C-alpha cells in the first residue's frame, strides 16, 4: 500500500460567508474536510495545510496579517502539521510542498479544499503531473458561480465540470462518506 498524505488547500476564512470571497457550500465542504482530517490524524497519515496569501498586498483579499488569510478554526492545523504559505494558484509553485511529500515518503495524495476551479484544480493537475496518484473528495471542496462572456455558470455546474475533468484524466473522485468507509 502506497504511503498517502492529505493536502488541505486554502480552507481559509476569506471563503466563509463573512469573508471577501464566499463560496457556495463552503460550510458543508469544511465540515467534510474536518472529518477527513480527523480520520487522517487517527490513521497517522501526514496532513499538510496550504494557505494562500497575496504577496505585497497585490489583491484586496488574502492579505497577509488579516483574519481572512487564517485557516478556518474547524480545520486548524495540528501542532505537528506543516502549513505551507503560497503566493500562486498552484500549491507546488515556489513552495516546498514537493519536498514535504518526499521527506515523508509519500507516494499518493488526497486533496480537499478551495476553490475547486482554481487552487484545487492546479494542485490536482500538478500532483498528477509529478506522478502522484491523486484522490479528490468532491464534497470536501467548494467553488462559486463563474461568469464568462455574459454567461453565468452556477457553482454546482462549475463543481461538476471540475470533478468530471479530474476523473477523466487526473484523479479518482469520490465522496467523503465513501472515502471514510474504505477498509
UniProtKB/TrEMBL annotation:
Ordered alphabetically, the record's keywords are: Hydrolase
Q: Which GO terms describe its molecular function?
A: hydrolase activity
Query: Per its UniProt record, what Gene3D superfamilies does this chain match?
Result: Isochorismatase-like (3.40.50.850)
Which InterPro entries does this UniProt record tie to the protein? Isochorismatase-like_dom, Isochorismatase-like_hydrls, Isochorismatase-like_sf
Residues of the Isochorismatase-like domain: 4-175
Q: What is this protein called?
A: Cysteine hydrolase
Organism name: Oceanimonas baumannii
Amino acid at each position: 500500500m502506497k504511503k498517502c498524505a492529505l493536502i488541505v488547500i486554502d480552507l481559509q476564512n476569506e471563503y466563509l460567508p463573512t469573508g471577501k470571497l464566499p463560496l457556495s457550500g463552503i460550510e458543508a465542504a469544511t465540515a467534510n474536510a474536518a472529518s477527513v482530517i480527523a480520520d487522517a490524524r487517527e490513521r497517522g497519515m501526514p496532513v499538510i495545510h496550504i494557505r494562500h496569501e497575496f504577496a505585497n498586498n497585490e489583491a484586496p483579499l488574502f492579505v497577509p496579517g488579516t483574519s481572512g488569510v487564517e485557516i478556518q478554526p474547524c480545520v486548524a492545523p495540528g501542532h505537528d502539521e506543516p502549513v505551507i504559505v503560497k503566493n500562486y494558484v498552484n500549491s507546488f509553485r515556489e513552495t516546498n510542498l514537493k519536498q514535504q511529500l518526499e521527506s515523508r515518503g509519500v507516494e499518493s495524495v488526497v486533496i480537499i479544499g478551495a476553490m475547486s476551479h482554481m487552487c484545487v484544480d492546479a494542485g490536482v493537475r500538478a500532483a498528477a503531473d509529478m506522478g502522484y496518484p491523486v484522490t479528490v473528495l468532491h464534497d470536501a471542496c467548494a467553488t462559486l458561480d463563474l461568469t464568462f462572456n455574459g454567461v453565468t455558470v452556477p457553482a454546482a455546474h462549475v463543481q461538476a465540470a471540475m470533478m468530471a475533468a479530474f476523473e477523466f484524466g487526473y484523479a479518482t473522485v469520490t465522496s467523503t462518506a465513501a472515502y471514510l468507509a474504505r477498509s
